[in-house]
């Protein structure tokens, strides 16, 4: 009897504990729901952080970025001393996070800004300048932040930053304002012909393959109309696009000529367009009469050349034709003509010999 009563008490305690646990879980869930329903704004003080990152190895010791803080036209009445510009300086040593990666956070300071009227004040933030645009194009990110100014019961004004920024390019809400930069470079292809049998006026077909990101757009430039596209000599093939992660095209070079790939001149400035780390392959199959050396390695194909930082992506192609090459190359290609010439010589010799024999027979008679 006593054991049955004790068993019932134990079950009763388990039920009570389960109900308490269930109530606690419900309260936690309700509290979380309340948090989720809270206004999507939060007072963050008077400064808005901007994080600037840079991937690569800049040739300059410091890279200076400038950002515009542009107030909406609706802000003209009710705000004074709004910040208009922010400068961020990235140093190769002090701001290095890891090898080939720099990062720094600066702040847009609104501490001197005075708001005289309640309302929502909006600002657009974008990058407007870079001291090393040749290697680091301007970041395309563009953000919008809002400050809500509310009138309190005592008549004073309180302003609050929204806790998110609005990415205008992707139409998304972001927790942080981030501007990312990737180092760009170019490819310099130079051809030379050497050897006693080399023809310095001969053009050679070179196939270049770039393994980049789909949608990347590059430029190709040459000197003295030495770049060929679709069998037409042109000086500039403007903006070719990488598709499916690979883009292949042909250029035709002769002795001492150069083509620049991924380089663009604009208003006297040179901009590089291919991200550092991209791979490129070179193929020259048409130089059959020559021994080919690509970057001093013998062979007509050089695959998966990684592009490095500025001015370290020279690809040198040397086609060498000497007597030993000619014997195995030029002469073999001319063999049918040589055989015909020998036959012709033998035939002419036979005719001459026969004629001489006929003349001698005539004299003997």
Alpha carbon gyration radius = 38 Å
Helix/strand class: alpha+beta
Find the CATH topology of the largest domain: Immunoglobulin-like
Tally of discrete structural domains: 2
Helix content: 10-25%
Q: Low-confidence segments, ≥5 residues, pLDDT <50?
A: 27-44, 222-238, 325-332
Topology, number of strands: 30
> Which percent band covers the strand fraction?
35-45%
Question: How does this model look, in words?
Answer:
The longest helix is centred in the first third of the chain and has 35 residues, at 2-36. The protein starts with a helix and ends with a helix. Mean pLDDT is 77; it is low at 27-44, 222-238 and 325-332. It has helices at residues 2-36, 323-328, 330-333, 335-364, and strands spanning 47-55, 62-71, 79-80, 85-91, 96-98, 101-109, 114-115, 119-130, 142-151, 157-161, 165-167, 172-174, 177-182, 184-185, 187-194, 204-211, 217-222, 227-229, 232-234, 236-241, 247-253, 257-261, 263-266, 269-272, 274-275, 279-283, 291-294, 297-298, 301-306, 314-320. The protein has two domains: 47-182, Sandwich (Immunoglobulin-like), CATH 2.60.40; 184-325, Collagen-binding surface protein Cna, B-type domain (Immunoglobulin-like). The protein is built from four helices and 30 strands. The protein has 365 residues and is an alpha+beta fold. The strands form eight sheets. Strands 2, 4, 8, 9, 10, 11 and 12 form a seven-stranded antiparallel beta sheet that branches. Strands 20-17-22-15-30-27-28 form a seven-stranded mixed beta sheet, with no helix packed on it. Strands 5-6-1-13 form a four-stranded mixed beta sheet, with no helix packed on it.
